[in-house]
Amino acid sequence: MSWFAVAKKKEKWVATWFGNLLKITFILLLVIIYVLRIHPFLAQQKPVQARLMVVEGFIPDYALEKSMDIFLKGNYELMIITGKKRLKGSQLDQYDNDGIYSAETLIKLGFDKNKIQVVALENDIKKDRTYASALAVKKWIKESGLDDNKLDLVSISCHARRSRILFDKAFGNETDIGIIAIPTISYDHKNGINRVAGSERSLKKPSPGYMPVSFFPEN
Predict the structure, then answer these.
(1) Which of 11, 163, 194, 210 has the smallest number of CB atoms closer than 10 Å to its CB?
(2) From first to last of its 219 residues, what are the pLDDT tens digits of the chain?
């Protein structure tokens, strides 16, 4: 063949109809696995039967009520509520911290105020608030002299796995972090499309050390 040729003939492999069918089937299988597994993967349920329950202060009222029910039915002795500056509504009442707001809500519902401890962030944190809250809880537990090597973290739906990973990162190997995901009412869990949409909102929140690597986690 001449060095100055501008075109040449090449042979190539192309998929047969059966090969294309296999590719389509494989893609559909991946989509089905994603739809079925993404929500339970993120909305993790794995409590460790601890004495301490840590509740994320931003969760809505219905989730607080569910947290109270779980606390009362379990062997918990203290509920620690994380807190940060409220993003909305603080000008309308005396509570500028969502942890304090959540604690007062629980007390209004009849929860024993002596079994509540709010651990609020002192600064107005704009980024990595969950991780900062985890460090604050760790510091408070250490300074309080509580000799517990495990705790159950309560979060909301698809936010649960993310929060557990960040608490694991903050506490290290010295504390076993359990997780309880309160179902959200913002979408229908039985509807696959809605579950995926809700799950993807959680995946769009990058945080230090957070990377979902498998949809088949060890239970």
Answers:
(1) 11
(2) 566 777 777 778 888 989 889 999 999 998 887 777 776 777 888 999 899 999 999 999 999 999 999 999 998 999 999 998 866 655 556 677 889 999 999 999 999 999 999 998 877 777 788 999 999 999 999 999 887 799 999 999 888 999 999 999 999 988 999 999 999 886 555 554 444 444 444 444 554 444 443 433 333
β-pair partners for 181: 155
> Can you give the pTM of this predicted structure?
0.73
Q: For residue 133, give the nearest of 116, 147, 153 by alpha carbon.
A: 153
Determine the 3-state secondary structure of 187 from DSSP: coil
Strand bridging mode 150-156 / 116-120: unpaired
Query: Is 176:182 a contact under the CB 8 Å cutoff?
Result: no
| DSSP-based three-state secondary structure for 6 | coil
Instruction: Tell me which residue of 213, 210, 103 sits closest to 162, measured CA to CA.
Output: 210
E-assigned strand segments in 5-110: 52-55, 78-83
Unique residue bearing structure tokens 């042979």:
11
Indicate the DSSP class of residue 191. Answer: -
How far does the chain reach from its first CA to its final CA, in angstroms?
Answer: 62
Output the DSSP codes for 131-190. Answer: HHHHHHHHHHHHHHT---SEEEEEEETTHHHHHHHHHHHHHGGGSEEEEEEEPPSSS-TT
